Amino acid sequence: MTHTPSRPAGHYHPQPEPGTVSPAHALQWLATGWRLFIQAPGVWLLQTLIFILILSALGFVPFIGWAAAPVAFPVLVAGLVAGADAQARGEALRVDHLFEGIRRHAGNLLIVGGFHLLGALLAAIIAAAIGGSAVLTGMLVGAFAGMGLAAGGVMFGVLVFTLLWSLLMMALWFAPALVMLQRVAPLDAMKCSAKACFGNLLTFIVLAIMLYVLAWVAMLPAGLGIFVLVPVLAGALHAAWRDTFAPPLALTPPEQPLE
């Protein structure tokens, strides 16, 4: 009989299979996020302030600021989700939960951030190429026909960018939680996330519409609503991950870091 070696401690978990969730879950997730927020509003507000300050500071780094913030974003999101997970397990939320992604899975989360940056650049380049070629063609044609061609091309470029950006967001939605809480490999996490969103497309369209409305509402009081929206989103993301993947290891203590 051939001996099968045991799985090493740092081995990635296999890709979890997403389940089916109904559109009604979208409202439940947001309600869960609000409930977690009101359990520890002071800590969540401080976490959100640090979250915003870090991303803003990274954006001002000379030469690489435009790339640093998108790459770091999933790392910080993973920390927010780790805090929501701790609350869901009955633990007290701490400010330093925000840095759990750095402590436990920094390398893998930075890889997800790299895909975030590359995907956004690719979407922008493709859209710009479509819009730019349409404008150039319109200039060559001239007159009203050329203006119409240019305008139509720019609108098509915007549509293409929106579509590609939506696909990227689907791949990124669950990726930080899957890497952080289930030790899924970065690229596999993005594949799982996209699969889950496509498999429950109506549910996530409903959620996206709700988030769009909430984002506008959060901007009304001088943008201060963002300090509530970010914690609610973190809790909603954790609840969505739990209901969509329902992993058997979701509530177990965290494993040792890979790095």
UniProtKB/TrEMBL annotation:
Transmembrane portions of the chain: 43-65, 71-88, 109-130, 150-175, 196-218, 224-241
The organism's place on the tree of life at top rank: Bacteria
InterPro entries the UniProt entry points to: BPSS1780-like
The keyword rRNA-binding appears for this protein: no
Record bears the keyword Membrane: yes
Keywords: Membrane, Transmembrane, Transmembrane helix
Protein known as: DUF2189 domain-containing protein
